[in-house]
Amino acid sequence: MRASTIIGIILIVGGILGFIFKGISYTEKEQIVDVGPIEIESEEKETIPIPEILSGIAVVGGIVLVAVGSKKKS
Question: How many helices (H) does the chain have, and how many strands (E)?
Fold first, then answer.
């Protein structure tokens, strides 16, 4: 397989996952108080949104790369 075909497949899968999950979520822990054996932590759930247009561009770009990579040399 050519490198462009592999990158195209990765872009297609990434774009589809972007449509499904619509963002990346993570939990951020912050230590508020640390006095001897007493610890108080705060947890905040953060989400990085993935725009649908970016997912669409990734899928279309991946399809183009797979098409170009699958063509035989003349």
Answer: 2, 2
